[in-house]
Fold:
Amino acid sequence: MFNIGDKVVYPMHGAGVIEAIEEKEVLGEKRQYYILRLPVGDMKVMIPITNCDGVGLRAVIDRDGVQRVFNILKGESGIMSGNWNRRYRANLEKIKSGNVYEIAEVVRNLIQRDKEKGLSSGERKMLENARQILISELVLATEMEEEKAQLMLDRVFA
Structure:
C-alpha cells in the first residue's frame, strides 16, 4: 500500500505523485482510490486501491535505477523484427509492462531505427509516448525539471 506523497508509476501513463486517498462511489460501489497527479501533461488519475497490483502500480526507481536506464539507452540496439506489425506489438508489450528498463529499450531501439531507416507514423507516435513515460519517471526519480530530463535524454542520442 502506498501513502500520500509517494512517487509511483502507472503503466502506460507514466510517473506521478499520490496526492490523496479518497473513498468514492462509482457505479453504486464504494471504493478507496489513490488520486495520482501526473506532472507530465498535468493529468489527475483515480486508481482503485484494490486494483493496484492488477494494473502494475509500482514505486519510482531510485538513483541506481536511473543510472541503469542511461546505461540501457547508451547500449546497442536489440534485435528487432523486420516485420512492422511484430515489432510494433513487441514494443507495445514492453510499454504496457510498466518496466522502466523495457521502456528504455523501446526508446533506444526506435530512435536508432529512426536514424537508420525511419519510422512509420505509428512507431513515431509510440516513440513519443515511450519517451514521455520515461521522462516522467526520470523527473520524479531525480527531482529535476522536465526540460532538463528531456535534454539529458536527447544528449544520449546526439
